[in-house]
Amino acid sequence: MKILVVSDTHGNFSPALQAHSLTEPVDAVIHLGDGVEDANLLRSLMDLNVIAVCGNCDHDATVPREILWECEGKRVFLVHGDAYGVKGGLERLEQRAGEVRADIVLFGHSHRATCITASGILFLNPGTLTRTSTNKTFATLEISEDSIKARLHDIP
């Protein structure tokens, strides 16, 4: 399964569409918060599964703050990241990932694209597509029963 992963769009919907056209075809889109309304727009325009979690700037959003999603036999933990202090490090998020037995953690909040492995878990932050960012980034994630491949991309 090929997944487009975005976060922190903050109302800047166009780069999310651009990211989709640069990576299509994809099987799903994941939005990691601070732009849940953008995720809803994606859902209305695309015939795709769009999964979203709530970020700290998504006031009055009705989507959950965290999701544990099963995909191709892998446990994928989706979270915005603010509640785990990801701007100061990944220790608390790594602890929570272990508690939920995640294989992959997708998070945002810091606006810094990150792809690392810690404790045998892949941690992927697609960065930001916010209007004010000089470096707009997103990620793709390919999950199969045998492998996990993550890649960070820049919006040209």
Briefly, what is this?
This protein is α/β, with parallel strands linked by helices and 156 residues long.
- What is the tally of helical segments? 3
Q: Which CATH architecture is right? A: 4-Layer Sandwich
How many structural domains can be distinguished in the coordinates?
1
Poorly predicted regions: none
Question: Secondary structure elements and their pairing?
Answer:
Layout: E1 2-6, H1 13-23, E2 28-31, H2 36-45, E3 49-52, E4 66-71, E5 74-79, H3 91-99, E6 104-106, E7 114-118, E8 121-125, E9 137-143, E10 148-154
What can you see in these coordinates?
- This protein has 156 residues and is an alpha/beta fold.
- Helix content is 19%, strand content 33%.
- It has one domain: Metallo-dependent phosphatases (Purple Acid Phosphatase, chain A, domain 2).
- The strands form 2 sheets. A 5-stranded mixed sheet has the order 3-2-1-9-10, covered by helices on one side. Strands 4-5-6-8-7 form a 5-stranded mixed sheet, covered by helices on one side.
- The mean pLDDT is 95.
- The radius of gyration is 14 Å and the shape is globular.
- It starts with a strand and ends with a strand.
